[in-house]
Amino acid sequence: MIRRWADRLSPVLVALFCLAPFYWMVVSSLRRTNDILDMSLLPSPFSLENYRAVFQPGNGFVRALGNSVVVAGTTTVLTLIVGTTAAYALARLRFRFKRTVLALVVSTSMFPGSLLIVPLLRLFTDIGWINSYQAMVVPNLSFALPLAVWNLTAFFRRLPFELEQAAMVDGCTAGQAFRKVILPLAAPGVFTTAIITFVVAWNEYLIAVSMVNDQSMKTANVIVSQFTGQHGYDQPFGTQMAAGVIVTVPLVLVVLAFQRRIVAGLTSGGLK
């Protein structure tokens, strides 16, 4: 009896634990500035002044949202192009040290991002990439590609090689067999990889705050952390909470809308 109740309650408790910070962020964003330290579970009175403050022209939040879309979208597209072709080659081609190559690709994701800041800053300064989109996209690629290659390699390995052979017997070249037969079948894995890559690139902060100091090129995460209050020195917690909700909600909606595809992609690939 106790075990049955524990089995039922444990998922609920885990969900409450994960959602509690987001709930508090939403509630705090709906309080008035004078009530921001109130500990009640619901805002009273209800106020939208923090959301109006987020979109004031002086904050540059709308431009920052556009920058985040550009950086995360470009990173996702390039990761899929490079990751899909690399994963297909690792899954299908036979060559020596193939497992070693795959292990090296995955091992590159183990380096702490903070250790890469100084050399990247020096390199991008020398080649004139500071305050540019590529200064954020290229490092994000190095973080996203290992996971994409690993996941897609496992996915391609599960597809029978006879499908490509049958396509080539019908007149397709190797490239056409990959594009017209294998790639559509791998859509769940590709879609899952795209969602994960976009979320990782959207939430990236360390590279963005280090490589960009031009206000018009900063991403949403950086702009939110640098919001200033009415007097320029106080911390506008309510406005930051409202901006956090605006930045987070699109990702939550995308994950909820495509959760079945994401689970299907993860369980069919290598992240079981």
Automatic annotation (TrEMBL):
Location in or out of the cell = Cell membrane
For this protein, the record's CDD domains field holds: TM_PBP2
Residue ranges of the TM segments: 12-30, 69-89, 101-121, 141-160, 181-202, 237-258
Any one GO cellular component localisation term in the record? plasma membrane
**What keywords is this UniProt entry annotated with?**
Cell membrane, Membrane, Sugar transport, Transmembrane, Transmembrane helix, Transport
Principal location: membrane
Supply the Pfam families for this chain. Answer: BPD_transp_1
Topology class, membrane: Multi-pass membrane protein
- Gene3D superfamilies named in the record: MetI-like (1.10.3720.10)
Q: Which GO terms describe its biological process?
A: transmembrane transport
Q: Which residues form the ABC transmembrane type-1 domain?
A: 65-258
PANTHER family recorded:
INNER MEMBRANE ABC TRANSPORTER PERMEASE PROTEIN YCJP, MALTOSE TRANSPORT SYSTEM PERMEASE-RELATED
Family as reported in the entry's similarity comment: Belongs to the binding-protein-dependent transport system permease family.
Protein name, per record: Multiple sugar transport system permease protein
